[in-house]
Predict the structure.
Amino acid sequence: MTSATDPLPHTTTVSTASSGPSAPDAAVPPEPAPRWSLPALLAILLLAGVLYTWNLSGSSLNSFYSAAIYSGTQNWKAWFFGSLDAGNFLTVDKPPFANMVMSLSCRIFGFGTWQMMLPEVAAGLGAIWILHSSVKRTFGHAAAAVAALVLALTPITVAINRDNNPDTILVLLMVGGAALALRATHTGRLLPLLGSAVCFGLAFNTKMLAGYIALPAVFAVYLLAARPKLVQRIVNLLIAGVVLAVSSFWWAVAVSLVPASERPYIGGSTDGTAWNLIMGYNGLGRIFGGEGNGGGGGGGGFSGSAGLGRMFNTILGGQISWLIPFAVVALICGLILCGRAPRTDLTRAALILWGGWTVLHYVTFATAEGTMHPYYTTALAPGIAALCGGGGVLLLRAFRTDKRWMWALPAGLAVTAIWAVVLLRRASGWNTWLWPTVGVLTAAAIAGLFVFRSGSRVRLFAASVAAAVVAALAGPAAYAWSVPSGSGGGMSGVNPTAGPSTGGGFGGPGGRGRGGFPGGGEMPGGGSGRNAEAGGGFPGGAPSGGEMPGGGQQADGGFPGGGTGNGELPGGQGASGGTAPGGTGTGAANGESGRTGARMGAGMGGGGMGGANNDLIAYLKKHQDGATWLLAVSNSQSAAQIELSAKVPVISMWGFTGTDKGMTVTKLEDLVKKGKLHYIQLGGGMMGGGPGGDNNSVSSEVTAWVKKHGTLVKESAYSKTTGSTSAGKTSSQTTQSTVYRLDPSDVN
């Protein structure tokens, strides 16, 4: 892949025929690179670097992935499998490639926020660089600069690039694969096509089928526009398909070759295999719901109801939709302008590739009925950026050279400004000066384009174009900057978002407020809390009445683990005196799951690097007695936060959603007999309703077995505050520990 610092643009195919008026060349003709090109790219990269790293050490990362990354630094087997714990009991619910990269960074530089995020930041900058190079090759330097700037300032991209979720590396690999495929289409060489296949294969090993969404567009463009003859193109695609299969499935095959008794349970699967994870939880379950993704019909509640308008709703609109209207206008008009260009026309090929990328991701994310986090939409950003840059230049050229196309560029700018005003006005009380400024600046820019369209006033025309770009990017730039300058989003770490509250719900940009759940207060999964509108709730769908997972109940909804905060986010103290998971104080939930969750950090968020009870950890470590695992808990959130605090392996019995069947009575009995595990915490379950979820009968068997054979550890054995009051609660309201001790003598 060539660098953006090449002294000359690459030679490209030129259209010789067109049915459209003043159809553009297939690409800009060769000419010396303008002096501003490289400085502009470096300035964009510097801006992006600041956005991605500003106050990064104060951000809350995703403790789920942090624990797996830490485990990978402690044990090479955990590094390979992507295990949540260094004892290799259960993996995270994604393939391990992104965690492998971050773990290697932490092995070299030590475990910490900056060391973990170094590859993520580099990946974010790398995606900008590669997109700039690819767009420059086809559309020229100005288009490349605009595309790079759009990608750098996409709000949800800034938010996720400040987090340790795998999506940043996923986007880098997919952009690299698309750029290489476009290079192979232009040159006719096989090697770039094979490189593209490897990139998409690694993307698959980063987030499974999410890495394949753009593949149909890649295959279609090569088959349609590549230089070789049809038979050779088909043969090349078949060879690339073999490379894609090898680079995609090597990890799943390797996992399958290891006996189940010698490998960790694959988190997110229903049978402990990587193949089930591919086809279920991370495959069709994301599209149709089920397989741990909820019952369908709502996208898990994080992004609002499924439907083609989802990208424009109050949750996702400010994250990704700012420039979608302009991208659509640019794509349609650009394809028409290409007219009857030769089959190998690179301009049309690029439009089809990036347009197909955008359409495929849009439709997939909009209609997905399984879990759909806002940050998934960062994968839309490269396609939108390329269309805005490349398509925008085509529209500008047509505006200046053909009166019949004078309307296209102004229309695209006008609809973009109107939509920006709508989005900005949704954020009531936030930068109220911005939306009038965008409107006025856009109107002035459009007027300038018409006034200075012809004649020798090139600088004034260029100033009008620059004003149009500034007006189009002012809104997303303001949203993007609110990430490093503020707290991050609705749920930084687990569900990072950018910008102000716009009325979204749990996990959305409105999560910092009290707006309840997306879609009018309904709890994800179909349940509705007693006070969902006033106090929010938690994912997974609670029974009516605000019941908490495991049987605890709160009048104000709250979070798993027993916090009574009035809709507060994890890690913060609620107005009612209780705390969300990872916070401080006591929970007032009735029922087993609420008894120690707040003190154990049994929820999402909570700082991402801690949130567990230090007194209990100290007690457990003192009495670990040579066991491999310090403790076994219900879900991966609890396990991750305790593990990060204790720096020793902790078992997640039932995974992230609480529905994994990782722990069974047979497994538990064997671990206890061998002295590898002594302590089990019952309760603290979330995401699925109860420890292990109501649908997990195995968890009920394990719970009954532990109660029968184990010895309850009284809270007074480790707590220094037992019997005292906290946050206005009396000692009678303080919940009891549900940690049990089991020794080999208890089961022999």
About this structure: The CA atoms of residues 455 and 718 lie 82 Å apart. The longest helix spans residues 230-257. The longest strand covers residues 679-681.
